Amino acid sequence: MNHPSSVTDTDLRSAPLAILGRYFVYLCALALLCQMQYWSVLANPGTRFSELSFVELAQSGLLLVSLILLWRTRQLGTWPAGTALMFGWLLASLIREQDFQLDRLFDGLWQWLVAVVAIATVRHLWRQREQIAEECRSFFAWSGFGLFMGGFMATYVFSRLMGRSALWEAVLGEAYQYRIKSGVEETLELLGYALMFAACVELWLLARRRFKRMGRH
């Protein structure tokens, strides 16, 4: 019997048509997110990219559902150490997205909460480093790895670089407006969170398939 955290080559392969079908659904979901963003700006032009805007709420919603899927995946026994690491990272991101509300309780609260999650995550990484290294062998071969890394880079790297005020001041000159810069940055973050959410869906489906197969043996 395989180690509970291991995933065989059979686990990592799925019917091509099923994979294409799911990716088509993800494509449609992205298109719907863009359209809903457009509708929300038309309906509430005053909010645009504020803390109560559709983009901000959608980001938090995607992160929350992703955390639920990761929790369930870990319960099913697939990559338990690695999914805990992913859970910690996305939990810190969700807390960061609530900075406005948390700072209303007292200034800097979100930084303290993120620090607690970060310390717990690093401690887990150190204690489970051997198991995480073992799980990475199959994680890197998993079809959803590209989705997760694409979302990671879009959210934590590309959106930050594209959201620099200096860049948009250079592009727009005297026509520069903060809301344009903010809109680009927040929209790229939404794309990244959506891609990581899709990866969490793929991981949960993989865990379900494996759990069901093990139950038949």
UniProtKB/TrEMBL annotation:
Record protein name field: Uncharacterized protein
Domain of life of the source: Bacteria
Keywords per UniProt: Membrane, Transmembrane, Transmembrane helix
Key word Membrane present: yes
Spans traversing the lipid bilayer: 23-40, 52-71, 78-96, 108-126, 138-158, 190-207
